[in-house]
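(Fold this chain)
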Amino acid sequence: MNPSGGGRFEVMLDGTPIFEKSILGRHAQPGEILGLIEKALSK
């Protein structure tokens, strides 16, 4: 995870974005990031 400025929040898994605040226009909900990681790993 790389910190950035400007209010950006991005989560990448193996180089693939799984959550991007700048695209969704919102913060992640509690547990949402963990759920996205679990979903990505189960594929």
